[in-house]
Every structure is written in C-alpha cells, then in structure tokens.
Design brief:
Oligomer: single chain
Helix content: 25-40%
C-alpha cells in the first residue's frame, strides 16, 4: 500500500508539474491510473484531496486557479518549485564532508556519499575534497541498535511507531506507541524523543532498551511537534546533570573513575574503599547500577532503595 501511494503521489506531481495550464479534477482523474480505479466520485475526491495535502506538506507548491467559466483547476509551476542554485565555499564544503564522513561507519554511508555526489554536480568546488582528512582524529557516530534506521525513517516521515521497551528498573518490556520527533546521540548512546500516546506526554527512550522490531503505524500524529526538541537536555536532567542535591556512596578503591570525576568530596575509608559525595539528580540510580558491586549507596535512603530495586529487576532477568 505504501508503494502504491508513493507511485500515485509521484504521478500526480508529474501531472501538475508537466502542465502549462490548470488541470481540472476530471482531467487529473483521467491522467492518473490509480484515480481511474476509484470506485465512486466521492472516493476519488477524498483520495485526491488527501494526495494534494500530502504533496503540499512535502513542499510542492500547488496553485488553485478558477477559470472564467467557474471551473477549478490545479497546477504546480516549475519556477515556484525550483530550488535556487547551490553555492558552497571551501569551509561549507569541508563541513558537509566532515558530516558525511561521520556516517561512513553507519548504515547511512550510501546516502551520505550520494548526497555529496549530488552536491558536486550542483557546483561543489572541484578543489575541495570532502573526504580529506583534516586531523588525526576520525569522527564516527556508532550505530549498533537495530531500531535506529526504522526510527530515523519514522521521524522523517512523521509516522507513529510501536515497539517493546524495557525500563531500567523493569524485568520485562512493555509496548509503547510513540509519535517519534528526533534522534540524538549523547555520551555514546542513542535516544529517541517523542510523544507517548498511552501516557499522553513527551518521553525519551534509550534505543538500547528497545527489544524486538519497530513496527510502523499508518495513522497521523495527534500531538504537535515542537520547533526545538531538547533530547540531550532532557536526558542530561534525567541522568543527574542538573542535580541540586548530594548523595553519599562507598566506592571500591581504583574503580568508578567517572564517579570520582563528578565527586565534590572524597574520603579514604581503608580496606579498599573510599567515601564519595556526588551530585544527586533524576537517573542517578540507573547510573550507579552500572558499576555493580563496586558501589554501595549510603544515603539518601530513597536513592539506596531505587538502586536495590533496579538490581533486583536485573537479577530477575
């Protein structure tokens, strides 16, 4: 069905772009094969109006023109739907080349290379090598999660998705129906921000906790997409980056260097243990669990209880 609709939209767009005069609904119905198969006039009208709205949403400028005899016609003028010439200086081309090189280790390598070829054909300076190494560091964005590609496409196409998600303190995953907004990498992990329909609110999901396949849903978004999606800021606040309290933990000597880097106070206890005071914010319990037996939470009691709950969930499998 998705392929058939894409073909129908393409044929309609070609008709509107290829005409020099406005075409009526009757003429468009006779020109697009899929419209000829519509069972009734009402069915065709609904299909045509949806297709016209979809093309406009994709960026095609469609004009509605009324003739002298009152008949309504449609066309898409080429001059209104032509992109301006692309001109890039050396610095802009280098930035695009660097961005493309980032994706060479991911599944977007083909798309990135194809995009650079199109930019070269559109006027990318011949003396600029987009893949030229500018430093000893090679930028990469690791993408190991199978959920990344279907979620990236769903974000692009504005399609709701259904997937099974296991929270850090849960033993079993549960289904989540989400309208995906944006993907972002933060500290080596990929996160999805979107609108959780069942909870009626914005949520952020770590891709490594998505189990099974990501399934697409054909319905439209029900919630408005914000102009700016602050994935990194949201995750940072959940991870305790905006902490306004302190926690006291015991840490095994020689272990937990990330915790030591955040500590506001360190005291040697002897017998292979140190006592650390660290910032405490939402999500600190999930981070502490990652250090396993090298960490013991002393206070506050609520943090200790949260860590124990997560450890029990992990033990249950």
């Amino acid at each position: 069905m998705a392929i058939a609709k894409a073909e129908r939209l393409m044929n309609l767009a070609l008709c509107l772009l290829g005409t020099r005069r406005p075409l009526s609904k009757r003429e468009l119905r006779e020109s697009v094969e899929a419209y000829l198969e519509a069972g009734s006039d009402d069915s065709f009208n609904r299909m045509f109006e949806r297709d016209k709205d979809d093309l406009r949403e994709l960026g095609l400028v469609i004009e509605t023109v009324e003739s002298l005899d009152g008949e309504i016609g449609y066309l898409a003028r080429r001059d209104s739907n032509r992109l301006p010439p692309i001109t890039l200086d050396a610095e802009e081309a280098a930035a695009l080349g660097l961005a493309a090189k980032v994706w060479q280790q991911a599944r977007l390598a083909g798309a990135a290379s194809g995009a650079l070829q199109k930019l070269r054909a559109a006027g990318l300076p011949e003396d600029v090598d987009p893949y030229e190494a500018h430093s000893a560091l090679e930028p990469r964005i690791p993408v190991h999660e199978a959920a990344f590609e279907p979620l990236m496409l769903a974000c692009r196409d504005r399609r709701p998705v259904l997937f099974d998600y296991r929270k850090a303190n849960a033993a079993q995953p549960e289904p989540r129906l989400v309208e995906p907004w944006a993907l972002e990498c933060w500290r080596g992990h990929w996160y999805l921000a979107g609108f959780d329909r069942d909870r009626g609110a914005e949520r952020v999901f770590r891709l490594s906790r998505i189990t099974g396949k990501v399934r697409s849903r054909g319905s439209r978004f029900t919630a408005p997409v914000p102009d700016v999606v602050t994935v990194r800021e949201t995750v940072a606040s959940w991870a305790g980056e905006t902490a306004d309290r302190s926690a006291l933990i015991r840490l095994r000597t020689g272990a937990g260097y990330p915790l030591r880097a955040k500590a506001t106070g360190v005291r040697e206890l002897g017998d292979g243990w140190d006592e650390l005071e660290i910032p405490y914010g939402h999500g600190l319990d999930a981070w502490l669990v990652e250090f396993g037996p090298d960490v013991v939470v002393l206070e506050p009691a609520e943090l200790r209880a949260d860590v124990l709950d997560r450890l029990r969930a992990v033990a249950k499998g």
